[in-house]
Every structure is written in structure tokens, then in C-alpha cells.
């Protein structure tokens, strides 16, 4: 009887998957043009957002000269996104994702315009900057799940890694250019003008999304109408797929360790290599440039079919690089720069394929909720990693913490690549690459048969 029940449950689950696939909208024929249109708008929005963010950081630095206030500013920019992303995912699944994206960009732009006007009237303060950082983070909590769950509706599965890499490169370029551009504009044209530019960038993003033809696909079930039930359904989707659940736990650990390490690079330059600001900037530039090189390689290659294996290898070798970095002596700064550059290339193969695993695995009608949960994992891992690294590095020393963190990251990579439940998940994801081709052949063969019947 148990075998019969098990078989019935499997048949029911398969029927649900078949129904989900049947409901999926077809990919638009001009999907490349749509993606490029969206990408251009997002490029202006993200660049101006990072510029205004770093202008705010510079204002807090000049005004308070306090590491505590800078830490509070960082928390204001991270915590709202981490806490609200699950709700943002629910909204992305419940409503038309095109309008969710437009509303999120419009909200951030309106807040930037309002803050700019307040500063223009002479009411600038540290508290105002903190509020602006928090409000921008709220907008991102709704924008990121909606954007990441929209891409699978526009892009063929075999190109998801490339598109994710393209989006990742945009964020990386913003991280490189944003601080320079933001602080330069802050000193030349003033804080309020940087915020006005941010509002203009958001307006352009809204305009490009408005002109893009994005399929209207969202969850119309009764469950989706109730926010709490809908949020529970997102957790249930992850819980039902134990492979994704295990992967999420390991990835959170790896991200937490890396978030802490990234904050220690300047201190590593100063303490271990007796460096100055110029040497620290060389290290940051080496990482930024080589990470773009790695993303370029991944964009051209596409990542292959075994995406989780690629993520695992990236994590393992990134950990090895951290261990080698911690073993360097004070007279080996040039090797520190080289290893940092190598890590930039290696780490580029982590995020893009990881996101594609989720996009291929999760049903489209629940994609927003799952992406929201993973955004929370990413956002909350940063403050956890920062707190852990700050406390532990005081006792172990910065160089020794690099070694410890490297060992943990490498173990995470090994687990991602060797646990049976994850190797099974990786093989199942690899099998989905062939689905579009198979469907196409079946359709073409059927059309040929129908044409032959007509001729007869």
C-alpha cells in the first residue's frame, strides 16, 4: 500500500510540474533586444545609485570621522533589503513583474529627488543620509527578486548564465566606478545634485522597462492572494527540494566568510605588508579589473552544463587563494596583488552559475518568493560575516583569519561538489539544457507529419 501511495504522490507531483510548464509563457522572439533595453536603463540607475550612496558615505566620513557611524550606515543599506526581500518575492509572484520593477525604481527615484530637495534647502544631516540608505535598501528588496525572476521569462535556459554574468558585471562596474564618480561629483557639484542624478537614472530605468515587452506571468492561485500563505509557499518550495535547501545553507556560510574577508583587505595591506593608501588602491583595482575579466570569460563560454560543479570549483579554489594569501610574508606584497587578481577571476564563476541553478530549478510562478529568500540569505550573510571577522581577527590576527576563512570556504566548495544530494541536483539541472531542443524537434516533426497529411 505504501508503494502505491508513493507512486500516486509522484504522479501528482509530476502533474503539477506539467501544469506549471504548460502555463509558462513562450519566450519572446526579440528577447535580446528586450534584455538590452532593460540593461541600458538599469546601468544608468545602478551607476547613479552607487554614486549617491558613496557620496553619502563620504559625507558621513567628513562629518563624523567615526567608524561606528560608517558601520551604522552600512547596516542601514543592508538590513532592510535582507529583512524585506521575502516580502518583495511574494509581491513579484503576485503581481505583474514589469510593474513591480517600475514601482521599485520609481520609489527609489522619488526618495532621491525628495532628499535632494531637502538638502538643497539646507537641511542636510547624518540622520537624513541614514534614512536615504535605508529607503534605497527597501526599494532593492522589491527590485532584485522581481528582476531575477523576470529573466527566465525572457532568456532561453542555455543563456541564463551569460545574462546573469552580464548583470553581475554591471554591479561590479558600479562598485569600481561608483566610489570615484560619487565622491568626485560630491566635491564638484554638491550632494544634492548627485541625488538629482540618481533620480534621473531611476526615471530612465522606469522608461526602459515601460517600453520593454515583458510577459505578464504571475501566480493567480488563491494561495498567492494571502501574503502569509504565499510566503509559506516559498519556504515550502525550498523545503520540498532538499538539494536547494542544502545548497542554500552552504552558500550562506561561504558568503558570510567572504563578506568578512572583503572588509579586511585594506587592513591586510596596512598590517601585514606595511602598506599605504596607494598600495591598498592597487589591490582593490587588481580585484576589480580581473573580476571583469573572469565575467567576460564566463559570458563568452556560458558556463557549460554542470553549473553546480562550476560553483563548487570556484569556491574551493577561492579558499585556496585565501590560505596562500594568509601565508605571505611582509616582503611579498606583489604576490598579494597577484593572488588577489587571480581570486577576482575565480570568484566570477560563483554567483552567475549559482543564480542560474535557482532559475532553472524553481517553478516560474514561485520564482520571486525563492529569489527573495536567497536575496535575504545574501544580504544577511554580510553583517554576520563582518561581525565574525571583526571579532575573530582581533584575536587571531588578520593574516591567520585569512587562512581560517580560506579553509572554511574550501570545505564549502568541496561539500557543494561532492555531497550526493547536490551532485544529483547538478545532473538534473544539466538535463534541462536539452529540453528546448527536444521540444523543438518534436514540434518540427509533428509539423512535417501534418504537412504530409495535408498533401495526401
TrEMBL record:
Location (main, coarse): membrane
GO cellular component: plasma membrane
Compartment(s) where it occurs, according to its Swiss-Prot or TrEMBL record: Cell membrane
Major facilitator superfamily (MFS) profile domain: residues covered: 34-424
Matching Gene3D superfamilies: MFS general substrate transporter like domains
Chain ranges passing through the membrane: 34-61, 67-92, 99-122, 168-189, 244-265, 277-300, 307-327, 333-358, 370-389, 401-422
GO terms assigned for molecular function: transmembrane transporter activity
PROSITE patterns linked: MFS
Region (Disordered): 1-24
Name of the protein in its database record: MFS transporter
Origin species: Slackia faecicanis
Organism phylogeny: Bacteria, Bacillati, Actinomycetota, Coriobacteriia, Eggerthellales
Amino acid at each position: 500500500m505504501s508503494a502505491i501511495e508513493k507512486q500516486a504522490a509522484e504522479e501528482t507531483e509530476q502533474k503539477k510540474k506539467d501544469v506549471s510548464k504548460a502555463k509558462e509563457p513562450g519566450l519572446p522572439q526579440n528577447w535580446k533586444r528586450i534584455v538590452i533595453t532593460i540593461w541600458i536603463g538599469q546601468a544608468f540607475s545602478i551607476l547613479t545609485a552607487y554614486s549617491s550612496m558613496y557620496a553619502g558615505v563620504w559625507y558621513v566620513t567628513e562629518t563624523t570621522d567615526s567608524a561606528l557611524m560608517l558601520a551604522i550606515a552600512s547596516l542601514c543599506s543592508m538590513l532592510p533589503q535582507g529583512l524585506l526581500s521575502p516580502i518583495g518575492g511574494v509581491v513579484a509572484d503576485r503581481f505583474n513583474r514589469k510593474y513591480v520593477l517600475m514601482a521599485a525604481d520609481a520609489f527609489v527615484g522619488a526618495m532621491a529627488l525628495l532628499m535632494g530637495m531637502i538638502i538643497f534647502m539646507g537641511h542636510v544631516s547624518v540622520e537624513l543620509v541614514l534614512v536615504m540608505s535605508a529607503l534605497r535598501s527597501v526599494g532593492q528588496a522589491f527590485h532584485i527578486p522581481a528582476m531575477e525572476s523576470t529573466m527566465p521569462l525572457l532568456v532561453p535556459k542555455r543563456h541564463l548564465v551569460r545574462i546573469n554574468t552580464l548583470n553581475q558585471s554591471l554591479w561590479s562596474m558600479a562598485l569600481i566606478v561608483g566610489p570615484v564618480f560619487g565622491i568626485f561629483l560630491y566635491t564638484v557639484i554638491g550632494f544634492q545634485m548627485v541625488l538629482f542624478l540618481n533620480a534621473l537614472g531611476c526615471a530612465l530605468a522606469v522608461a526602459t522597462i515601460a517600453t520593454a515587452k515583458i510577459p505578464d506571468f504571475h501566480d493567480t492561485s488563491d494561495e498567492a492572494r494571502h501574503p502569509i500563505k504565499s510566503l509559506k509557499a516559498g519556504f515550502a518550495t525550498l523545503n520540498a527540494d532538499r538539494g536547494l535547501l542544502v545548497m542554500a545553507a552552504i552558500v550562506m556560510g561561504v558568503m558570510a566568510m567572504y563578506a568578512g574577508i572583503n572588509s579586511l583587505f585594506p587592513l591586510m595591506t596596512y598590517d601585514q605588508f606595511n602598506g599605504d593608501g596607494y598600495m591598498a588602491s592597487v589591490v582593490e583595482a587588481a580585484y576589480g579589473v580581473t573580476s571583469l575579466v573572469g565575467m567576460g570569460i564566463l559570458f563568452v563560454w556560458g558556463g557549460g552544463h554542470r553549473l553546480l560543479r562550476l560553483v563548487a570549483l570556484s569556491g574551493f579554489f577561492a579558499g585556496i587563494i585565501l590560505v596562500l594569501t594568509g601565508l605571505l610574508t611582509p616582503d611579498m606584497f606583489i604576490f598579494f596583488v597577484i593572488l588577489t587578481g587571480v581570486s577576482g577571476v575565480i570568484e566570477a564563476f560563483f554567483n552567475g552559475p549559482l543564480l542560474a541553478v535557482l532559475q532553472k530549478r524553481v517553478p516560474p510562478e514561485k520564482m520571486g518568493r525563492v529569489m527573495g529568500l536567497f536575496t535575504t540569505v545574501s544580504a544577511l550573510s554580510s553583517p554576520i560575516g563582518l561581525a565574525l571577522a571583526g571579532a575573530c581577527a582581533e584575536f587571531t590576527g588578520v593574516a591567520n583569519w585569512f587562512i581560517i576563512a580560506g579553509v572554511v570556504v574550501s570545505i564549502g566548495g568541496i561539500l557543494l561538489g561532492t555531497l550526493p544530494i547536490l551532485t544529483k541536483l547538478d545532473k538534473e539541472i544539466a538535463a534541462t539544457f536539452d529540453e528546448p531542443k527536444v521540444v523543438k524537434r518534436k514540434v518540427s516533426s509533428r509539423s512535417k507529419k501534418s504537412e504530409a497529411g495535408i498533401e495526401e
